[in-house]
Amino acid sequence: METVTVNLGPRSYPIFIGQHLLTEIGGLLRERAFQAGRVAVVTDSIVGNLYRDTVVEALTSAGFDPFVVEIPAGEEHKNLAWLAFLYDKLIDGRIERRSPIVALGGGVVGDLAGFAAATLQRGVPFVQVPTTLLAQVDASVGGKTAVNHPAGKNLVGAFYQPRLVVIDVDTLMTLPKREFVAGLAEVIKYGVILNADLFTLLEEQLARFLQLDSDLLTFVIKTCCQLKALVVEEDETESDYRAILNFGHTLGHAVESATEYKRFLHGEAVAIGMAFASHLSHQRGLCSATVEQRVRELLKKAGLPVDIPKDLKGEYLLFGLTTDKKRAGGKVKFVCLEDFGKTRFEYLDMKEIGTYL
Q1: Which residue intervals of the chain are DSSP H helices?
Q2: Is residue 238 annotated as a catalytic residue, yes or no?
Q3: Per CATH, which fold does 2-174 belong to?
Q4: CB–CB of 278/269 below 8 Å?
Q5: What is the pTM of this model?
Q6: For 79-95, what is the mean pLDDT?
Q7: Catalytic site includes residue 242
Q8: 170, 164, 198: which is closest to 184 by C-alpha?
Q9: Cβ-contact 2, 18 below 8 angstroms
């Protein structure tokens, strides 16, 4: 088992990465001084069928009293209505101030369960058990929790750090290929903005990674968690530096919103956003054509989309950008590239952005 620590003073927590960790979840909670008692396991309809019983058995064996709350799978359910449903189930389940909420699933489950944990009884303990590649390398680390609003993605949320993150790489073996590839977009993102060596490794070892080589998976996931931990430690609540993690997300969120979260997976939309951000960076003279080309080629080689669909260009995307959380003074904060591992912020108004679409 590999361990990465997110150092945030009294809010510090470990990330455990390895195989067969779902069966050890009870012991890991006990090691973190959780007392026996009620535990809520929040999952979705797909992940629950696969791993609910394993986690419940592991918690019960360690002396906990778990109960399960299940929500439908899909980004379209990450909203206030399903958050209200989750509150009702947690209250009915007799959650107490010391009762941990365990998020077993992908980014949607983590966001919903995390925001519920941040706000129920003014905060209860939260544990992330991500089962998708995207959640393992990104969404489960850093304390961002949120739900979507009809006006835009993740507009209602809070920063709330988990007590620990448990990453069992074996769960990736049951992940649909499309979901796995979508998560790879976030892995590529870390290579582009923070670690040129990681980007090169992905270029050279992509086939092995797509074949789910356990050793390579563990190494890459650990590397991504280390990179994100460093960024979060520098800027926990995204006042400035942490915004580099939004590379590709500005346009990506607009793509998701414009398609009502039904046409593209999050990672697919982010891939389109990264290709666009690379193009914008090159067109503005910030990075070379080679940088743009390498980003696009790796995304395409991974099986990710890189082009904005023709039916989305124009007012649909621009409307989504007008509700972007990083918008200020009528301009949107774009993360742009100068080189691999080197970024800068560009503040663009809607007219400027429109010239690149």
Answers
A1: 25-31, 45-61, 80-92, 107-119, 133-134, 177-193, 196-210, 214-234, 249-258, 266-283, 289-302, 315-322, 350-354
A2: yes
A3: Rossmann fold (3.40.50)
A4: no
A5: 0.92
A6: 95
A7: yes
A8: 198
A9: yes
Cα–Cα distance, 288 to 223 (Å, whole number): 26
Lowest mean pLDDT among 21-30, 33-42, 264-273, 274-283: 33-42
313-327 residue pLDDT tens: 666 677 667 666 565
| Amino acid identity for residue 8 in this structure | L
Check: CATH 1.20.1090.10 for 177-354?
Answer: yes
Active site residue 144: yes
Sign of the torsion formed by the C-alpha atoms of 333, 305, 156 and 314: positive
- The catalytically annotated residue of 222, 266, 296, 325 is 266
Inter-residue contact 109 to 44 (CB < 8 Å): yes
Residue 249 annotated in active site = yes
| Tokens encoding 237 | 């609540």
Whether 253 is catalytic:
yes
| Residue tagged active-site, from 163, 246, 282, 292 | 246
Q: Among 89, 163, 189, 228, which one carries the catalytic annotation?
A: 228
